[in-house]
């Protein structure tokens, strides 16, 4: 949903979709803290959210990077985690 909203320049929808996604991804990380994909998804969604909220880079940028690093730590073959970030 975030990508579709971005392509149509609907920033409010990107923010709303990213916030909902972050909440779901945080649950996924809690359910399975050893899931590289869950940490990568959270990193991606935080990266989507950052430019769409005031002070988002400061609030979400480092956390997005930390989650991407955790995803790589858990699975060094997770190419999506290595190629993405804030």
Q: In terms of per-residue confidence, which ranges show pLDDT below 50 for 5 or more consecutive residues?
A: none
Number of strands: 0
Could you say which structural class the secondary elements and strand pairing correspond to? Answer: mainly alpha
Percent of sequence in beta strands: under 5%
Please count the helical segments: 5
Q: What would you call the quaternary organization?
A: single chain
CA gyration radius, whole angstroms: 12 Å
N- to C-terminal distance: 18 Å
User: What series of H and E elements makes up the topology?
Assistant: HHHHH
Q: Can you walk through the features of this model?
A:
- It is built from five helices and no strands.
- It is mainly α.
- α2 (11-31) packs antiparallel against α3 (36-49) and α3 (36-49) runs antiparallel to α4.
- 33% of the residues are buried.
Quickly list its features.
86 residues, 76% helix, mainly alpha, globular, single chain
Helix/strand layout:
Layout: H1 2-7, H2 11-31, H3 36-49, H4 56-74, H5 79-83
């Amino acid at each position: 949903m975030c990508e579709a909203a971005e392509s149509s320049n609907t920033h409010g929808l990107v923010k709303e979709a990213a916030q909902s996604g972050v909440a779901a991804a945080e649950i996924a990380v809690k359910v399975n803290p050893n899931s590289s994909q869950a940490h990568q998804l959270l990193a991606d969604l935080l990266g989507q959210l950052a430019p769409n909220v005031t002070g988002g880079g400061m609030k979400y940028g480092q956390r997005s990077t930390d989650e991407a690093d955790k995803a790589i730590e858990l699975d060094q073959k997770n190419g999506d985690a290595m190629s993405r970030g804030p």
